[in-house]
Design brief:
Elements (H helix, E strand, L loop, with lengths): L3 E6 L7 H14 L3 E5 L4 H4 L6 E3 L2 H4 L21 H13 L4 E6 L1 H14 L4 E6 L17 H22 L1 E7 L6 H10 L3 E3 L10 H16 L6 E6 L2 H4 L26 H15 L5 E7 L1 H4 L5 H19 L5 E6 L2 E6 L21 H9 L10 H8 L6 H8 L6
Parallel strand pairs: 1-2, 1-4, 4-5, 5-10, 6-8, 6-9, 7-8
Antiparallel strand pairs: 2-3, 10-11
């Protein structure tokens, strides 16, 4: 009897999904497997319904690796929200007659795959291929997650246009980009485009006041003015919203959450909140500057993958099937030194939270330091002597008052 491999996609889109689908399917064909594509991720499986499926053939997948989006669509559904949901999901998979399952997704999809693999104990071989433009999964050798390089490339191009617009019109843009747990995308885009500064969640403690983020941006605006430039672009990772104190959102009727309990960041107008805060603060210190908000996010997720991600995803899909055929189950498929390196899904779980560990920007690395050195940020030396006097002169504050109000946001 021919065995069947299923493929599903969970979470938000990322460039390169179709490359994984194509290479996994073609390698499965080489082993004589039947391949079923499951539409809409875990959505119908978790509800106990029979999902819409398609039996994939070579003609379906032979040329999809260079296209964006997902031919199987995707959804944000938590298959392990509770025991009943997990059981329904497993029973639905069993009704499909699957021997193997390849799950393409980020930390939440990986969490669901880990629970399915543990509960089925090898009866259903499960492998996850890491996907997220946030670049926040702890892969070996600090390898990027697939989709990140494409998102960074497209995002950097958008920033370059905004920087030229800012220069031409003598204004500032506060740009919010995706990155729930990690500021890697904001930092990568900023560094590649050479924008004025990036503001990352990793730079702030939990329950940070909104004023600290606002003053970080305002400080950069003042510092740029001190050298004769009245324009700039600040890139802010959306994950800042999860670090802010509840008071930052008290004017909102409710802060929505998804099925994994995460704040629905797309529904929080972070850009406008920061824009309004920056405008108010500039007025308070006597600085006349035009400030606008811009979101960069959805336009990155389904972009046509750059060659790096095409190459990368084809190897990952191949590796996932080879791992399963070899008798493996319960691993995330990664690459290390060009070789497929399965990582146990259980080992990826944080023992304190029970969720998949996330990788954050490491501020001790040279990669971060280079980016910081090219940014315009208030730093400790700015609050001494002539430099302090020059900064205060751009505002209505005297040097002592400027130091008292802004020294707290200076990063070493």
């Amino acid at each position: 009897m021919t065995e069947t491999l299923g493929i599903l996609v969970g979470g938000g889109p990322a460039p390169g999904i179709n490359g994984v689908i194509a290479s996994a399917a073609m390698e499965a064909f080489n082993y004589g497997l039947r391949v079923v594509g499951i539409y809409d991720g875990y959505r119908d499986l978790a509800a106990g319904r029979t999902p819409q499926t398609v039996e994939l053939t070579f003609d379906h997948v032979s040329r999809i690796h260079t296209s964006g989006g997902s031919i199987l669509r995707t959804s944000r559904t938590n298959p392990a929200r509770d025991e009943a949901t997990l059981q329904r999901c497993i029973e639905s998979i069993e009704r499909l007659g699957l021997r193997y399952l390849v799950c393409i997704g980020g930390d939440d999809t990986t969490f669901g795959a880990a629970r399915i693999a543990a509960r089925t104990n090898g009866a259903i071989g499960v492998a996850t291929v890491p996907k997220t433009i946030d670049n926040d999964l702890p892969l070996p050798d600090n390898a990027p997650t697939f989709g990140f390089e494409t998102a960074r490339s497209v995002g950097a191009g958008i920033l370059e246009s905004l920087m030229e617009d800012a220069r031409t019109t003598a204004r500032w843009y506060v740009v919010v980009c995706m990155g729930r747990k990690s500021g890697a995308l904001a930092l990568g885009m900023c560094k590649a485009a050479g924008s004025t500064l990036a503001v990352l969640p990793e730079e702030f403690p939990e329950n940070t006041g909104l004023s600290s983020v606002v003053d970080t941006i305002v400080g950069a605006i003042v510092k740029r003015r001190s050298v004769g430039r009245k324009h700039g672009v600040a890139v802010v990772a959306e994950g800042i919203a999860e670090r802010l104190s509840p008071q930052a959102f008290e004017h909102l009727e409710a802060v929505p959450r998804d099925s994994f309990g995460n704040i629905a960041l797309a529904d929080i107008p972070l850009g406008m909140i920061l824009r309004d805060g920056v405008r108010k603060r500039l007025e308070e210190i006597g600085v006349d500057s035009t400030v606008h908000a811009k979101d960069i996010g959805y336009e990155l997720r389904c972009a046509k993958p750059v060659p790096f991600d095409v190459d990368y995803t084809r190897t990952l899909g191949f590796g996932a099937v080879r791992y399963l055929i070899g008798g493996g189950s319960g691993a995330l498929i990664a690459l290390s030194g060009g070789h497929v390196s399965p990582m146990s899904l259980e080992d990826l779980l944080d023992p304190e939270t029970g969720r998949i560990r996330t990788r954050q920007v490491d501020s001790t690395t040279e990669a971060y330091r280079v980016a910081r050195d090219y940014m315009v940020r208030l730093e400790p030396p700015d609050f001494e002597g002539e430099r302090l006097a020059n900064l205060a002169a751009q505002t209505s504050l005297d040097p002592a008052r400027f130091k008292a109000e802004f020294e707290k946001v200076a990063l070493p």
